[in-house]
Design a protein that fits this description.
Blueprint: E1 2-8, H1 11-17, E2 24-27, E3 30-34, H2 38-58, E4 62-63, E5 69-71, E6 78-79, E7 83-87, H3 97-100, E8 102-103, E9 111-115, H4 120-134, E10 138-143, H5 150-153, E11 160-167, E12 170-176, H6 194-198
Parallel strand pairs: 5-8, 9-10
Antiparallel strand pairs: 1-3, 2-3, 4-7, 5-6, 7-9, 10-11, 11-12
């Protein structure tokens, strides 16, 4: 669920205004309040926990901020990803990190995950394009209800986890369903199936 707040603002105004509570994104100068469902939060929490464990196991220098923004190349747009993985070593090159916990460079983000809600078009189209343009190496779309359009997940719409990986500047997609084990360049040793993720909280 999302709710728009009717006032046009710049990205700088947005990060200055951003309150301590609540979850917001800025889309073309429009502040949008994110109101996730319980299942959305269960899937997000499970995925985040599993990836933190994997990063620790593999000794990777990753951090998992929960309220950091990604400033997109689209006009006056900033996203609040469901799961954001940051290379701690790259933060010193991020101009807005210390001031506003905001990332502007795709090279700082090995992996970003969006868990699909009713605004699935943003995840499959707009965010996909922006994350690709930024050069984020890997982008997962966790569509636990199979809400995505047929052009994205096929005619027999079903719960799907899409893994987009950057190849020569463009995303290449691999999709996983059911008991498929997810294949990730960011976490090559990850032993996790789609079913385990999508059954979180049950």
């Amino acid at each position: 669920m999302i709710q728009a707040i009717s006032k046009q603002v710049t990205f700088d105004e947005f990060i200055t205004w951003y309150p301590e509570d609540g979850r917001y994104e800025l889309i073309d100068g429009q502040v949008v309040e994110m109101q996730p469902t319980g299942k959305h939060e269960e899937v997000t929490e499970f995925l985040s926990r599993q990836l933190i464990l994997e990063a620790t196991r593999e000794g990777l220098p990753y951090r998992f901020p929960t309220r950091a923004l990604v400033k997109a190349p689209s006009w006056e747009t900033g996203y609040l990803p469901d799961v954001l993985i940051v290379d701690h070593n790259a933060l010193k090159s991020e101009p807005l990190w210390k001031k506003a916990a905001t990332l502007t460079q795709g090279t700082s983000i090995p992996l970003v995950v969006e868990v699909v809600s009713t605004n699935w078009e943003n995840d499959y189209a707009r965010k996909l394009e922006d994350y690709e343009t930024m050069g984020i190496q890997e982008y997962w779309i966790a569509d636990y209800l199979g809400l995505g359009g047929k052009r994205y997940i096929g005619n027999q719409k079903q719960p799907t986890l899409s893994v987009y990986q950057l190849v020569k500047g463009e995303y290449s997609c691999q999709q996983f369903r059911g008991n498929d084990r997810i294949e990730s360049r960011t976490f090559p040793q990850l032993n996790l199936t789609v079913q385990q993720i999508f059954s979180a909280g049950e």
